[in-house]
Amino acid sequence: MPKQYTITPLSELPLRNDFMFSQVMRTEEICRLFLESLLGIEIQRIEFLDRQKDFTDSYEYHSIRLDVYLKDEQGTVFNVEIQADRRDNLPRRVRFYQSGIDRGELPKGADYANLSESYIIFICDFDCFHIGKAVGERAAFLKDTDVPYEDGSHVFFLNSRYTEANASKPILEFLDLVRTNDVEKLYETPLGQMARERMQEVRSDKELEVSYMTYAQKMMDERRIGYMDGLEDGMEKGMEKGIEKGMEEGLKNAVAALKGVLDPTVIAERFKMSLDQVMDILGQK
Fold first, then answer.
1. Cα torsion 190, 119, 58, 16: sign
2. When you count CB atoms within 10 A of the terminal residue's CB, does the N or C end of the chain come out lower?
3. pLDDT of the residue at 62
4. What dihedral angle (degrees, nearest 10) is formed by the CA atoms of 2, 89, 34, 191?
5. What is the distance between the alpha carbons of residues 3 and 125, in angstroms, rounded to a whole number?
6. Cα–Cα distance between 180 and 173 in angstroms, integer?
């Protein structure tokens, strides 16, 4: 039976949905408050580079579509992603995203020293590393030393299912909103309040609903195509394996049928098998 896909109405869309997340985080003040609260820095101005930026080198290679991609006044690059479904390959995905961002940032012939400082932030609706912490930051050191390995890149994994609240109140409220989808709760911090209010605005925006339905239909079509491609590939491999197994069984039956009629050596030559294989099938080993 084909896999069924449904589109969640805009009026019920949670923050962990890509479309809602993009709408909320592309509100400049919300995004600025989020980054300042998480990183403990001050940002005077941010510039959104492209909505769901797509890095594609060639049709032959895997593309990268970024949820929220921006720079601050210092030229520091930020990529903020929402991850609703559990994935165990996120560190490798970060590596892939980082390579795409770096290629986009460094013009041909430019010195590597010109690479921007960068932050990749994954907000997960699950505990990616099973550590319970609300925030996990990647740290790199040279082996067997406390010497940090610094290349200007930074990675954070946020966990909405946290059991250890090792983050500021604004970040915890934001993660609570991701987890609970509760827009009726009275949040205490400006970040929590503004994120909730923006969600309510998006949900009631009739003009935006057209864009959302177009986006949602496109995503659903992509998932359906991916599912069908995977199903077709699985069927082909299954058929190949079945044919191979059938041929193997047929060969065994043919050899067994000649038991007592032909000498094993003749059978081996006829079917291009080793004498040991023939003797094994005939049960004479």
1. negative
2. N
3. 46
4. 40
5. 23
6. 10
CA distance 69 to 246: 53
Query: Residue 131's CB: how many other CB atoms inside 10 A?
Result: 13
Tell me how far the alpha carbon of residue 45 is from its chain's centroid: 29
Query: Are 32 and 225 contacting, i.e. CB atoms less than 8 angstroms apart?
Result: no
Contacts of 182 (CB under 8 A, 6+ apart): 176
Neighbour count for residue 76 (Cβ, 10 Å): 19
In the chain the beta strands, taken as DSSP E runs, fall at 46-51, 54-55, 64-65, 68-72, 77-83, 118-124, 135-137, 153-159
What's the pLDDT tens digit per position in 101-138? 998 888 877 888 889 999 999 999 999 999 999 999 99
Q: What is the pLDDT of residue 59?
A: 37
First to last CA, the chain: 47
Report pTM. 0.73
pLDDT of residue 205: 95
- Tokens standing for residue 90: 């996120």
Cα gap 118→32, rounded to integer Å: 15
Q: What is the DSSP letter of 168?
A: -
Residue 116 has phi, psi (to 5 degrees) of: -70, 150
- Rounded CA-CA distance 43/48 in Å is 13
Q: Assess contact for 193 and 187: CB atoms under 8 A.
A: yes
Question: Which residues does the chain have with pLDDT short of 70?
Answer: 1-5, 50-65, 221-264, 266-268, 270-272, 278, 281-285
